[in-house]
Design brief:
Blueprint: H1 3-9, H2 23-34, E1 45-50, H3 53-59, E2 74-81, H4 88-105, E3 109-114, H5 121-135, E4 141-150, H6 165-168
Antiparallel strand pairs: 1-2, 2-4, 3-4
The structure holds flavin mononucleotide.
The site of flavin mononucleotide has 10 residues, from strand 3.
Length: 174
């Protein structure tokens, strides 16, 4: 699948088949994250791959909107050393998008579990604390995103409703 097709075909997939994701596939995904851009070339991101059922199930309890991790065959915690870069959060997001598009290109399904909530530091700390405990993440690292993946267990063709393109895109001036 070429890059444009992977971008347009990407969907949130939240139910996965029971076959495992191979180590080779996970390494290809990590290579896609490794090649993501980084503000000021600081490269603060760190990644934790989880395939153990027990840990995946516990990640699915981080908050009420990520129970689908309980059927995921792998998870990737996108973490960062915030002290290394003012762009740590942006770097995590672009790395996550690389992972999501690469997973789509490889025929895998993926979804995003939000750990970081910009308007709620208490809830962020609670979710992050949970993730931190599940994967023994060092205190120095933030963990804004958990991605879950596997073979899709269903077919999604419809896009989620977006605002009309003409309301969102502007040419020359707003
Ligand atoms: C920043 C961000 C946070 C998200 N958090 C969650 C989440 O916690 N749980 C979840 O099920 N989906 C989450 N999603 C997935 C969105 O709900 C999804 O991308 C959106 O509905 C569009 O659907 P699509 O991904 O199929 O295009 C998140 C996506 C983004 C970009």
């Amino acid at each position: 699948m070429d890059a444009m097709a992977a971008i347009h075909n990407r969907r949130s997939i939240k139910q996965f088949a029971s076959n495992p994701v191979s180590r080779e596939t996970l390494e290809k995904l990590l290579a896609a994250a490794y090649d993501a851009p980084s503000g000021a070339s600081n490269y603060p991101c760190r990644f934790v791959v989880v395939t153990e059922r027990d840990r995946l199930d516990r990640l699915g309890e981080a908050h009420p909107h990520c129970g689908w991790l309980k059927t995921a065959q792998a998870g990737i915690i996108v973490a960062a050393d915030a002290g290394k870069s003012r762009y740590w959060l942006e770097d995590c997001c672009v790395a996550a998008q690389n992972l999501w598009v690469a997973a789509t290109a490889m025929g895998l399904g993926m979804a995003w579990s939000a750990i970081y909530l910009s308007d709620n530091p208490e809830e962020t700390a609670k979710r992050e604390g949970h993730v931190r405990q599940v994967v023994a993440l060092p205190d120095a690292l933030r963990a804004p995103i958990v991605l879950g993946l596997g073979t899709p267990d269903y077919q999604v063709s419809e896009r989620t409703k977006r605002p009309p393109m003409a309301d969102v895109m502007h040419w020359g001036k707003y």
